[in-house]
Design goal:
It contains ten helices and 37 strands. With 710 residues, it is α/β, with parallel strands linked by helices. Among the domains are: 80 residues, Leucine-rich repeat, LRR (right-handed beta-alpha superhelix), CATH 3.80.10.10; 94 residues, Immunoglobulins (Immunoglobulin-like, Sandwich), CATH 2.60.40.10; 187 residues, Sandwich (Immunoglobulin-like).
C-alpha cells in the first residue's frame, strides 16, 4: 500500500508544474506577495524575435506583459487558461488584428493595453467576455472607424484611449453611452486627438477656435492643446462645474474674460502654458476657491499687480517663468494668503505643505523698484520654495547677468536737479553750453525746454555718472539774439520730476551794424513747413521784431524757376499761410520778409512735390513734399540753414549733407548758395524718373546724390 501511495504522490508532483506551468524560456517570471497573503505572478516577454506568444504561460499569472516583439497576431486559444489574469499589456508589437475569441474566459481582466500596434479594427464584441474590464488603451494604432455597436460593450469602462489613430468621427452612441450624457457628434480632422479617461477629455484639433459646446457635463479633466483657441469668453465652462483639471496649453489664447471661470468651484489645476497672454484677470479666481496649481509659463505677462494673488487662497504652485516681467513688488507675495498662512503655522511649529514659485527667465530690471523683491527672495525660507533660485538681472547694463543674491540696490528717489551756472550772458556769434546735473533712482530722463524749441533744435547729450546721477548738456552754436530766454532742464522718473531754470542773455556784438541795417538790428524770422498733405502745405513762421503788433510781412511763392512769383501781404498777428493746388513733380520756392525789405536769394524754403499725384490720392494720408531742402532764417549771416522737421528721412538726409540741421553745428559756407542752382537743376531728371515717396522708401539707391559728388 505504501508503494502505491508513493507512486501516486510522485505522479501528483510531476503533474503540478504542468498545471501551473513553468516560465517560458523567452520570458521572465516573478512572484510577488500581496498584503492579503496571496501571491501575484507577473510574466514579462520582450524578445524582439518572438513571432507568437508563448504557449505554456503559468495559469496563475495575474499580469502578462508582451511588448516590443514581432508578434502579428495572438491565436484565439492562447490565453483561455489564464482565468486569474487581471492585466494584459501588449504594447508596441506588430499586431494587425485581434481575434474575436482572444479574450474568452478572461473573467477577471481589468486592463487591456494595445498601444503602438498596427490595428486597423477592433472586435468590440469581444469585450462581452470581460465584464470586469475598466481600462482599454488603443492609442497609436490605425483605427479609422469605431462601430456604433461599441457603445454596447464600453458601459463599464472608465478609461478609453483612442488617440493617435486615423479617426474622422466617433459615433454619438459611444459618447452618449459612455458617460450617460447627451453629446453631439464629434468631427475632428486627421491631426486631432480625443481621449476619454476617467471622465476626461483631450482635444488637439488644430482647427478648433472656441470652446466646444458639447463637452460632457461630468468631465473632471479637460485638455485642449495645440489649437487656434484665442480667447476664453464669459461662462466658457458654465456647463462643466465638475471640472477639477483644466489644461489649455500651447494654444493662441490672448484674452481671458473675468467671468470665464465661473461655476468652476472644484477646479484644482489650471494650466495655460505656451499661450499669448499679456494680462490675466486675477479677480476671475474668486470663482476657483480650491485652485492648487496655476501654470502661466511661456506667456507674455509684463505686469503682476499687488493684489494679483489675493483670491488664490489655496494655491501651492505658481509658475510665472519665461514671461516678460521686469519689475514686481514684494507686496504681491507678502499679501498672498498662502504666504501669510505659512508664516503663522511656522510660528506655531505646525506642519504645512510647500508653496512653490517659479519666476526664472524673466527680463528682470534690477533698479530701485526691484529692491524689495530682491531682498524678499534673499531671505525666503521653506515652506515657500523657488523652483529656480538663480534669478538673473537683464538690465540695466551695469547689473545685466548678475544674480539677485549678488546685487545691492538703492532705494527709489525723486530727481534733484542742479546747475553750476543759472545766469549766462554771451555775445552774438559765440558757442555756448548749458549744463545740469540730476540725481535720482532710477536714472531719470532729461528734457530741455526753451522758447523756440519747435523751430530750432540743439544738440543735447546725457551721460550717467555713477548709478544715481546723470549729467546733461545743451549746445547752442553761434548764438543769436533770439536765443535769449529761459532754458529749463527737466529730469523725470517714476518717482516724480524736478527742473532747474537757466537764464541766457545774448548781447549784440559791437560790430553788428556791419552786417545788419539799423531797421533790421532786432528783427528775426524763422520759417518752416508745418504741415504737408496731398492737397498742399502750411507755412509757419516765427518773428521777433521791435514792434510785433505793427509788423507786416510779404510772402513770395511760386515755381522755383519763375522770374515773377505770387506775393501776399500778411498783417500783424498772423504766422501761418496755407498753399493749395500744388502741381506734381514740381520744384517750388517760398520766401518771407519784412514788408519794408525785399526778399533775398538766401531767405527761402525750396521743396519738390511728388511725381505721380494719382498714386497719392489712393493713400489715406501721404506726405507728398518729398524734398525739403532748407528753410532760411532771415536777418542772419548768409548760409545759415534750418532743415524742415517733417521732411522724409531720405530727403532729410540729403538736406543734412548740405546744411546743418536747425543751426546745429557750424554754419554752411557761402559756396552752398553758389552751388544750389546746379543742385536743383540736377533734381529734374530724378523727379521725372522715379522721385516719389514710395520709391524712395523701396530703393535707397535712388536718393539724391550728395553735393560733394557734383
Amino acid at each position: 500500500m505504501w508503494v502505491a501511495m508513493g507512486v501516486l504522490w510522485c505522479l501528483a508532483l510531476r503533474e503540478l508544474p504542468q498545471a501551473l506551468g513553468s516560465c517560458p524560456s523567452q520570458c521572465t517570471c516573478s512572484l510577488h506577495s500581496l498584503s492579503d497573503g496571496t501571491k501575484n505572478r507577473v510574466v514579462i516577454c520582450n524578445d524582439p524575435e518572438m513571432t507568437l506568444p508563448p504557449m505554456m504561460i503559468p495559469s496563475d499569472t495575474s499580469k502578462l506583459r508582451i511588448e516590443k516583439t514581432a508578434i502579428r497576431r495572438v491565436p484565439g486559444d492562447t490565453l483561455q487558461q489564464l482565468t486569474r489574469l487581471e492585466y494584459l499589456w501588449l504594447p508596441y508589437n506588430s499586431m494587425t488584428s485581434v481575434s474575436s475569441i482572444m479574450l474568452r474566459g478572461l473573467w477577471s481582466l481589468r486592463e487591456l493595453r494595445l498601444p503602438g500596434n498596427h490595428l486597423v479594427s477592433f472586435p468590440w464584441g469581444a469585450l462581452g467576455d470581460t465584464p470586469q474590464l475598466c481600462l482599454l488603451d488603443l492609442h497609436g494604432n490605425r483605427l479609422s472607424a469605431v462601430s456604433a455597436e461599441a457603445a454596447r460593450y464600453v458601459r463599464n469602462l472608465t478609461f478609453l484611449d483612442l488617440s493617435s489613430n486615423q479617426l474622422m468621427h466617433l459615433p454619438q452612441q459611444l459618447l452618449t453611452t459612455w458617460s450617460h450624457l447627451q453629446a453631439g457628434p464629434f468631427s475632428p480632422n486627421d491631426n486631432s486627438k480625443i481621449i476619454l479617461v476617467c471622465r476626461s477629455l483631450l482635444c488637439m484639433d488644430t482647427s478648433l477656435r472656441k470652446i466646444l459646446g458639447n463637452i460632457p457635463k461630468d468631465i473632471k479633466k479637460l485638455r485642449i492643446e495645440n489649437s487656434h483657441l484665442s480667447e476664453l469668453p464669459h461662462g466658457s465652462f458654465s456647463n462643466n462645474s465638475a471640472l477639477e483639471f483644466l489644461w489649455l496649453n500651447f494654444n493662441n489664447i490672448t484674452e481671458i474674460h473675468p467671468g470665464a471661470l465661473e461655476h468652476l468651484r472644484d477646479l484644482r489645476e489650471l494650466r495655460l502654458q505656451g499661450n499669448r497672454l499679456c494680462t490675466v484677470p486675477w479677480t476671475a479666481f474668486q470663482a476657483t476657491p480650491v485652485l492648487n496649481i496655476l501654470d502661466l509659463k511661456h506667456n507674455r505677462l509684463d505686469v503682476l499687480p499687488k493684489q494679483a494673488l489675493q483670491y488664490l487662497v489655496n494655491l501651492t504652485y505658481l509658475d510665472l517663468s519665461f514671461n516678460e516681467l521686469t519689475v514686481v513688488s514684494e507686496d504681491v507675495f507678502i499679501q498672498w494668503p498662502m504666504y501669510q498662512k505659512s508664516r503663522k503655522l511656522i510660528s506655531r511649529a505646525e506642519g504645512i505643505s510647500n508653496v512653490v514659485l517659479a519666476l526664472h527667465n524673466n527680463p528682470w530690471m534690477c533698479d530701485c523698484h526691484l529692491k524689495g523683491l530682491v531682498q524678499f527672495f534673499k531671505f525666503i525660507r521653506p515652506p515657500v520654495i523657488l523652483m529656480n533660485s538663480y534669478l538673473m538681472c537683464r538690465s540695466p547694463l551695469s547689473k545685466a547677468g548678475k544674480f539677485f543674491y549678488e546685487v545691492e540696490l538703492n532705494s527709489c528717489m525723486k530727481p534733484k536737479t542742479s546747475t553750476s551756472n543759472s545766469n549766462i550772458t554771451v555775445q552774438v556769434g559765440l558757442n555756448i553750453t548749458l549744463s545740469c546735473l540730476a540725481q535720482a533712482s532710477p536714472l531719470p530722463n532729461i528734457v530741455w525746454n526753451y522758447p523756440l524749441k519747435k523751430l530750432k533744435e540743439f544738440d543735447v547729450s546725457t551721460s550717467p555718472i555713477g548709478e544715481d546721477s546723470i549729467h546733461s548738456e545743451l549746445v547752442i552754436p553761434l548764438a543769436h539774439l533770439t536765443d535769449s530766454g529761459n532754458y529749463t532742464c527737466v529730469a523725470s522718473n517714476s518717482m516724480g520730476s524736478s527742473s532747474v531754470p537757466i537764464s541766457l542773455q545774448v548781447q549784440p556784438a559791437p560790430s553788428s551794424s556791419s552786417y545788419l541795417t539799423s531797421s533790421e538790428e532786432h528783427s528775426y524770422i524763422y520759417m518752416r513747413i508745418a504741415k504737408q498733405t496731398v492737397y498742399g502745405i502750411v507755412l509757419e513762421w516765427y518773428a521777433a521784431t521791435d514792434n510785433p503788433s505793427e509788423t507786416w510781412f510779404t510772402l513770395y511763392f511760386g515755381i522755383y524757376e519763375a522770374v515773377k512769383k505770387e506775393t501776399v501781404s500778411i498783417g500783424p498777428g498772423i504766422n501761418t499761410y496755407w498753399v493749395n493746388d500744388l502741381l506734381p513733380a514740381t520744384k517750388y520756392e517760398a520766401c518771407i520778409s519784412l514788408q519794408s525789405q525785399p526778399p533775398h536769394k538766401d531767405q527761402c524754403i525750396v521743396f519738390v512735390t511728388g511725381n505721380d499725384i494719382s498714386e497719392l490720392y489712393k493713400r489715406e494720408r501721404v506726405i507728398h513734399i518729398i524734398v525739403v531742402v532748407c528753410a532760411l532764417a532771415l536777418a542772419v549771416p548768409v548760409g545759415v540753414y534750418v532743415c524742415a522737421s517733417e521732411a522724409h528721412l531720405s530727403c532729410l538726409g540729403h538736406c543734412l549733407d548740405n546744411c546743418p540741421p536747425r543751426r546745429n553745428g557750424s554754419r554752411c559756407p557761402s559756396t552752398v548758395i553758389e552751388s544750389r542752382e546746379t543742385m536743383f537743376n540736377n533734381l529734374t531728371t530724378g523727379i521725372e524718373e522715379s522721385l516719389y515717396l514710395g520709391e524712395i522708401k523701396e530703393d535707397q539707391s535712388q536718393q539724391i546724390p550728395n553735393r560733394e559728388s557734383k
